[in-house]
Each structure stands twice: as structure tokens, then as C-alpha cells.
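We include this case.
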Amino acid sequence: MASLVAILDMKGKSLIQRNYRDDVPPSCVDKFLPLILEMEEDNVPLTPCFTDEGINYMHIRHNNLYLLALSKRNSNAAEIILYLHKLVAVLTEYFKEVEEESIRDNFVIIYELLDEMMDFGHPQTTESKILQEYITQESHKLEVQVRPPMAVTNAVSWRSEGIRYRKNEVFLDVVESVNMLVNAQGNVVRSEILGAVKMKCYLSGMPELRLGLNDKVMFETTGRAARGKSIEMEDVKFHQCVRLSRFENDRTISFIPPDGEFTLMSYRLSTPVKPLIWAEASVETYRGSRIEFMVKVRGQFKRRSTANNVKIFVPVPEDADSPKFRAAAGSVVYMPEKSCFCWTIKNLKGGAELLMRAHFGLPSVTSGEVDGKKPLSIQFEIPYFTLSGINVRYLKIVDKTGYTALPWVRYITESGQDYVLRTIHDAKSSSIIAPL
């Protein structure tokens, strides 16, 4: 449990705080940033949790803010850190951007949210859709809603009763993000798949949903034979609506969903994978006059699939000017503020290979060398495709009234935040030899 929750600016000044148990003096908030700076000076690794003079400090950083929780007891630190992340998510739902200005402009609503989301230091309602039913940003609605909705006190606190739709539908998206690092020799140094099952539910009443995946552990536990490929997921995290006891017993994902859009589960796979989209650049420098690039991109996935909105970011010297581009497909834009150019390909088919040339002028005083530390980075999205091979075996909707519902399933693979290739070579050692 937390005794005090505060939101601080980057100078350590408290913008707003709520004391729940009165056993931690508010002056401890002012000590937070000096303690952080002291640890940095002493080269002590900064962790989200530390203790000083019997006070436990638990914090996260978001944009230009610190979210801080203090406790004098032996609290569950992981639970409190998770609560702080949920607080950020709820504030984002309300204000779109959570930053110092939005905190200062919405003191009243934030105090109300802090009161509803935690009681005497114990986390309570953290589902933003339920909170928005009785904590609104329009003052006249506050007078109309006298009591909170029943969902707050029900066992199913994330869904209100009495929901009705003329057309009952469920949309399920399996989204996998690929993070990858490739060294200069073309070898994959690190790769991981971060997956998420996202849902949009427009269902009447209080239906129960059951989701079946090609889960390797489930097949082994039940003794059934897998039809096709099965996968072994790691670091599986569920929305609070999933019945964890049921999943632990027989790996069945059973739940009563929130209304609208939410993330049902997330997972990670550390299985080694090859780059879905390969790119390399050949650089030829003419000292004091110009620098030329030849970039090759290749789709290394199934031929029947297509990657959409492929963007290859290629670093250039900071003082390069007079850009000229020639591409076999797509468009190229110079981005001087980021010292790179971006080659955008709307559609790249599996197995396809494309080339482009870039020419830049250089001042006579420059060395003309591209910073070797900056790699190529790629963004893309491949619909109807999953790299891990995850498959939704079934999505059953159980409702006592017996209405019919339409489930829709879609698969998407996209680049993660860290899909980089250190495949920029000097023209003499490059494997790119075909001209445009």
C-alpha cells in the first residue's frame, strides 16, 4: 500500500499530491530529486524503488514528469509501480497528453481521480471507461450523477450492466512488433517479438468470451496433438478481466470483456528470427565536393504478403546540402533536422528487391564521413501475417440470452521501436553493384 502519491516536475517540485495515510511527512517529497541526483553522482544504478531513512520511494518517469509513491510499510513495490503506470494511462485517456501544463490545468479532476483510484493506500478502480462514467470534465454532468455506477462495487468492476447494441460484434487484432539489431557483417545480434492481442468489443449484456490459441503448453498439458505449428509464449500479461485461475489450470483464456477497446494480453518471444526487411547502403565520398549513397532494400518474407508504408532512414553528414534522389519506387525526403533522408515505399512485396541513389553536396571543409555509429533504421507494417506463427483457433461468445455475434480476427506484424541494421559500407567493400 502507498501512503502518499505525488506528481512532480523535472525540478522535483510537487505539482499535485494526495496523502492517504498521514504516516509519511510531505517533506519527504522534496527529498526525492536530491536523492536521485546524489545516486547519479555516486554512480549508483538508478532503480524505480529505493529506501531512505525508513521511507520507501517508488517512482516512474513520463514525459517531463515524475510520478512518485511513498510508503513507510513493507509494501508490494511491483503493485505500486503498476498503479503509477495505470494512473498515467487514465490521465492520458482524460487529457490526451500527460505533461506539466495538463496537470496544472486539471487539478480538480486529478484530485477526484486520485480519490477514486486509491483508498487508504490500496488501489481501487483503475478502469478509465468506468471512471469516465461519473468523473467528467463537464461541470454540469457532475451534478446529474449523484452516485457512482454499479460496476464500481460489482465483481466485474471493468464493465457496466445494461449495455445494448443493435449489432453485436467483436474485433480481435493480433499485433506483433519485431525488434532487431544487425551488425556490420549482416549477422543478427539481437531479436525479439513483442505481441499483443487487442480487442474491440461491442456486445450486449455481460457475455463470457473464450479464446483459444495454438499454445504449446496447452497442448502438452491436455495431451492433445497440435494441428500445425504451436508456439511457446513468454512473459504473458493479461487484462484484469481474464480468469487467471482458469488459465493456470487448463490454459483456457476465459473473460467477460470491458466495453469498447482494450488490450486483452501481451507476450514476448525470444526466438531467433531473420530480418523481414533487409536494407544496406553503399557510401562513396568525394572529399570536399559530394557524397553519394546507393541503398538496396529487399523483402525477406513470403511472396504472397506485402509490407505497407516501408520507411528506410539513412544517416548523412550534418552539413550535407543540395540533395538529389533517384528511386526505382516510392519517394525520398531529406530530413536535415535529423541528419538523414527517408525512403518511403508504399508497398513492398515479398521477395522484391529495389534500389535508390542519393547525391549530396558537401562543403570543402568537411571530412565527408558518415557517422559510423548511426545505423539504418526501418519502419514497416505487414498485414495478414505473424512472424511467430501464433494462430487464433477459436473465439467463442457465450451469452444466456442466446444472441448471435460476429467475431473478426486480423493479424499484423510491424517494426518495433528498435529495428536497426548497421549495414552501411564504403563503396569499395559494398555488395551493392547493380546500378539503377
